[in-house]
Amino acid sequence: MNSVKTAIQPLDREMGQQVREYIDTLTKPPGSLGRLEELAIQLAEMTSEAFPVVSPPGVIVFAADHGVVEEGVSAFPQEVTVQMVMNFLNSGAAINVFSRQIGAKFEVVDIGVAADIEADGFVNRKIRYGTNNFCQQDAMTREEAEEAIAVGYERAEQMIHQGIKCLIVGEMGIGNTTPSSAIAAVLSGKDIGALVGRGTGIATEKIRHKQEVIIRALKERNPDRKDPIDILAKIGGLEIAGMTGAMLSAARNRIPILVDGFICTIAALLAREICETAADYMMVGHRSVEPGHEIALELLGKKPLLDLDLRLGEGSGAAVAFPILQSATLMLKEMATFASAGISNE
Ligand SMILES: Cc1cc2ncn([C@H]3O[C@H](COP(=O)(O)O)[C@@H](O)[C@H]3O)c2cc1C
Ligand SMILES: O=C(O)c1cccnc1
């Protein structure tokens, strides 16, 4: 982990400045393409390319289960996790549709599903059959949390070697808004009441119960705010750790990361806890309905590209936002300059 820390380079501000000046020579009033201009500059700073590209993107979905579901914190039963993995493999999930739409390389990783998966076409890196119920004991050991980060790191390395130019990570894990809310509470110090949402759609009276489960777990587990591995081991999830590792790999390789919703943003915050510079390589695709997302976004200090009332996860919101990054790069590459088009600019 320490080698990752030192290997993540700061942004190339000089390239950013060069691209900023170039954008002002394009045939439009200065600043008129708003955040597309900012995105183009950020992508140039991340990649050190005057004309950055983001295609093809890569989508990695990490799937795992959560012992805490036995407390009744989700609207859906645990077996939906493995059933959705089958759906991913049959290309029927939302993230399959949007990945196809954007021409993404796509991969599903079993990093901790609570059942054996009888199928081909997925990456089997199961660390254990779901986490423990963290109301009763630590979700996993420190070693397992570190292994999950390493699995995520390795999967992203693999995709990056295959040539992806932008990383999207997604998750599938019934119950995972509960550990995500617990982690958000630890990292932000905010009240549970402000953080907990409906997840898959629990009823209002169940939200109160979900809050109580998290309050109880935080009291029992008492994770160390300053130690992201301790947080993951005590109240985390295997897919959350996998996403964290994948984002660290992308940052190390100077590959832009398009962050998805609430759960993904929690993984992003943990990546930043491990290495602060990692966050320089992140942009956020959308604002999720889940109330904790707003708090997580504030902590990360990033403004989402879209606000479409999504509350799905899987990487879906990031995939939907991806064409905006493409627009930013094409603006740079294909627009005429005042000089080349012979247009007066004074
Ligand atoms: C069919 C189905 C597909 C999903 N795809 C993502 N999630 C999302 O919902 C779950 C989190 O919500 P909670 O904490 O309330 O269980 C995660 O699996 C997340 O990826 C899904 C949920 C369902 C039911
Ligand atoms: O924003 C998310 O990532 C999210 C919200 C609700 C359920 N699953 C995921």
UniProtKB/TrEMBL annotation:
EC number(s) stated in the UniProt entry for this protein: 2.4.2.21
Keywords of the record: Cobalamin biosynthesis, Glycosyltransferase, Transferase
BP GO terms, sorted: cobalamin biosynthetic process
CDD domains: DMB-PRT_CobT
Pfam families: DBI_PRT
GO MF annotations in UniProt: nicotinate-nucleotide-dimethylbenzimidazole phosphoribosyltransferase activity
Catalysed reaction equations from the record: 5,6-dimethylbenzimidazole + nicotinate beta-D-ribonucleotide = alpha-ribazole 5'-phosphate + nicotinate + H(+)
Function noted in UniProt: Catalyzes the synthesis of alpha-ribazole-5'-phosphate from nicotinate mononucleotide (NAMN) and 5,6-dimethylbenzimidazole (DMB).
Family statement drawn from the similarity comment of this UniProt entry: Belongs to the CobT family.
Protein name: Nicotinate-nucleotide--dimethylbenzimidazole phosphoribosyltransferase
Organism whose genome encodes this protein: Neobacillus bataviensis
